Amino acid sequence: MTHQQPFFELIHTSKKSGARIGRIHTAHGIIETPNFVPVATNAALKSIDSLHANSLGIDLMFCNTYHLLLHPGPDVIASCGGLHAFMNRSRPIITDSGGFQVFSLMYGGVSEELKSKGKKQQANSILKISEEGVVFRSYRDGSPMLLTAESSVQAQKKFGSDIIIPLDELPPYHTSEQTLKRMLDRTNRWELRSLNEHLASPGYQHMYGVLHGGVDRGLRKVSAQFINSHAFDGIAIGGSIGKSKDEMIELLTDIVPMLDATRPRHLLGIGDLASIERAIPLGIDTFDSSHPTKCARHGLLFTMNGFVKIEQTKYKNHNFAPDPLCTCYTCRNHSCAYLHHLFKAHEPVAHILASIHNIHMMMQLFANYRKAIAEDRI
Amino acid sequence: MTHQQPFFELIHTSKKSGARIGRIHTAHGIIETPNFVPVATNAALKSIDSLHANSLGIDLMFCNTYHLLLHPGPDVIASCGGLHAFMNRSRPIITDSGGFQVFSLMYGGVSEELKSKGKKQQANSILKISEEGVVFRSYRDGSPMLLTAESSVQAQKKFGSDIIIPLDELPPYHTSEQTLKRMLDRTNRWELRSLNEHLASPGYQHMYGVLHGGVDRGLRKVSAQFINSHAFDGIAIGGSIGKSKDEMIELLTDIVPMLDATRPRHLLGIGDLASIERAIPLGIDTFDSSHPTKCARHGLLFTMNGFVKIEQTKYKNHNFAPDPLCTCYTCRNHSCAYLHHLFKAHEPVAHILASIHNIHMMMQLFANYRKAIAEDRI
C-alpha cells in the first residue's frame, strides 16, 4: 500500500552504448523514454488542433512559461482549470521557467521568432538583473515585468504542468570563465530557491534541475554535483552546448556521465534528426523542439528515408503519400500531389497536414529507437 | 427495376411561404435542402482539414474551377482520381464554370481576395472576349489562357464534380439594357454549348443552368424561359441581384416564381445569415459562400443568439464554450478564454477552431430551417 512508484523507472540500458529506455510516471500518465517532446509555445501546437494532437501519441508536450505569462497569464489559465483543461490535453505537460526567453531577448535569440509571427518587433529589453530576479519589458504592451525564482514556480504551479523547470540565468554566447562561474553560482541559488518554492506546496508536480556551465567541463561538473545533491526529479541540460553538432556531442559525451543515472535527462531545445541520433546513444532521454512543425510549415516533410521537399515540381503529379509506409492521418488520406497543390495555393490546410505528418513521424522514430535499444541494437 | 430516382425530390412546401424541403440525389450521396454549401476554393476549406471537414455533416461543397484550372490543373486532379479522391471527400461537390472569377478580374472583384492571400497582386486582365470564349492572363505566371463553354465543362468533367455549372458572361454592375440583353443572349448560347458538351459524355454528373438578366425583370423572364426549356437539372441564380439586401429580396420575390419548381434553386455567392433568413421563404434551396470561414478568421463566431467577437476583452477569462448548446468539436472541447488567447497570440489553431465552429453552426442552422419548414413554421 505504501509502495510508491518511482518518478523515473529505468528499464534497460543498451549493451552497446549509453542509450537507455525508461518510463517517467506522472499524474497525467506515463512518458516512455527516449521520447520527443513537441513544443506548443502558446498552449497549442502550431497548426494542429487538439483532436489531431491528442491522437498523435504525444507522451509529453512542452509549453513556454514566458509566452503564457505575457498572455493570457497564469491566473486566467488557473481559473480555466490549468493548462491541461485550457488546451484540452489529458496527458503530461512540461513548462520551462520563462528565463530562457527573457535572457534570449538580451541576445536577440527570439527576435527572429517574434518577427516570424508577423508582429511589429518592439524594443525587447531586460531592465534589471539582480539577486532577486530579472525585470524585463513585455513585448506585448511595454510594461515592466518581474520574473523571480518564486514567481516562475508559482506560475508553473498555476499552469499545473507535470514537470516544471527552475529559474536560471542564461549566459551570453561569449563570456569569460569568471562571469560564467558567477552566473552559475547565481543560477544555483535561483534553482535552490525554485526547488524550495516547489517543495513548499506539495502536489503531483515534479521539478527538473537545469545543468549549466557552458562548454567548461569543470563548471559542468560543479553544476552536476549541485543538481545531483538536491531533490530535483530530473535533469535538463541547458546553457551553451557549443557552436556545432560535433562540439555538442563531445560536450554531452563528457557531461552525461556526471549526471545521476537514476534521473531522466532532458536536452533543452534540440530536435534535429542528426543531433537526436547521436545524443540517444549517450543516454539522453527526452528532447524538445519546434523543429518538426517549423519544417512542416516550410514544406519539408520527414520520412524514414530522408526529406520530401513537397513544393518541388516533381510532386505536382505524384499520387502517393509522402511516406507510403507512414500511418499518419495525412499519409493515409492525402497524396503528395494534393499537399504540393495546397502549399502552392498558400492554403492553411497545407500547414495542418504537413505538421501532423512530421509530429507523427517523430513519434514513430522514437518508438523505433526504443525498440532498437531494447534489442541492444543502438 | 427501371424506376429512376429523380435528381430533385421535392418533399414539402410550407403552407406559410414558398419555403420548401427536398432532397438532391447524386452519385456521391443525398443533399438535404435547404442547405448551406461551404466554399473550398482550392479544394480545401480554409483552415479545416478533411478529418474535421468530413465530420461536419456538409452535404455539398463548392470548389472554384478558376483557381483549380490555374493550379494544379484538371489533368493533375483527373490523374489523382478526381476532386473527391484528391481532397479526400466522399460526398457531393459542386464546381462553377470559372467565368465568374475571370470576369470579376475585369471589374476588380477578386482583387481584394487575391490581396488577402498575401500574394503580390499582378496585373489581372481579360485579353479578349469573343463568341468562342474569353482569353485572360493567368495571375500565377502571366500566361494567356482560353476559357470556353467546352473547356470549362471538360475541366469540370475531369474534376468529377457532381454538379457542374455552364459558362456565362458576367455583366458589369452598371450597364445599359441593350448591353445586358446582348450579354444574356451570348450567355444563353454559351450555356447551351455547355449543356451540349455535358450531354455528349453521359455520366453521373448533373448541370445547373445559370439565371441571368441583372435586375431587369423582363430579361430575367427571358433567362428563366431559356433555362426552363432546356435539360438543366437545377437552376443557379447569378448575375447582378441588386445593390442592397432589400433590392435582392425584391428581385428574388419576382424571379423565383418564374423558375420551374421541380428543379433545385441555388443562390450563387450569398451566405450571410440575414439574406439566408429572407431568401429561404422565397423558395431558395441552396446557398454557397465563404462568409462563415472568413468571419471565423476574423474572430467572429456565429451562435444561435448572435455573434461572439472572440477578441473582445470580456472573453479573456470566460471559461465557457462560445455557444454552450453547440455540439461542434470546438464548443465541446474549448472555452472562449482559450480561443481568445489563441487569437491574441496569432496561433493558427485559432482559425481552425473558429472555422469548425462556424461551419457546424451553419449546418445546424439549416437543419433547424428544414425542421421548421416541415412543420410549416416558416
How would you characterize the overall build of this protein?
2 copies of one chain form a homodimer. Chain A has a domain at 8-33 and 64-289: Alpha-Beta Barrel (TIM Barrel), CATH 3.20.20. The two termini of chain A are 38 Å apart. Residues 110-123 of chain A have low confidence and may be disordered. Chain A has helices spanning 50-54, 65-70, 74-79, 82-87, 99-107, 111-116, 149-159, 177-200, 217-228, 245-255, 273-279, 291-297, 329-333, 336-344, 348-374; strands at 8-13, 20-26, 29-33, 35-38, 61-63, 93-95, 126-129, 133-137, 144-148, 163-164, 206-211, 234-237, 265-267, 286-289, 300-303, 306-309. Chain A is built from 15 helices and 16 strands. Chain A is of the alpha/beta class. In chain A, 53% of the residues are buried. In chain A, α7 crosses α8 (177-200). The first copy, chain A, has a 6-stranded parallel β-sheet. At the A-B interface, α1, α3, α14 and α15 of A face α1, α14 and α15 of B.
Write the layout of secondary structure elements.
2 copies of one chain form a homodimer.
Chain A: E1 8-13, E2 20-26, E3 29-33, E4 35-38, H1 50-54, E5 61-63, H2 65-70, H3 74-79, H4 82-87, E6 93-95, H5 99-107, H6 111-116, E7 126-129, E8 133-137, E9 144-148, H7 149-159, E10 163-164, H8 177-200, E11 206-211, H9 217-228, E12 234-237, H10 245-255, E13 265-267, H11 273-279, E14 286-289, H12 291-297, E15 300-303, E16 306-309, H13 329-333, H14 336-344, H15 348-374
Parallel strand pairs in A: 4-14, 5-6, 10-11, 11-12, 12-13, 13-14
Antiparallel strand pairs in A: 1-2, 2-3, 7-8, 8-9, 15-16
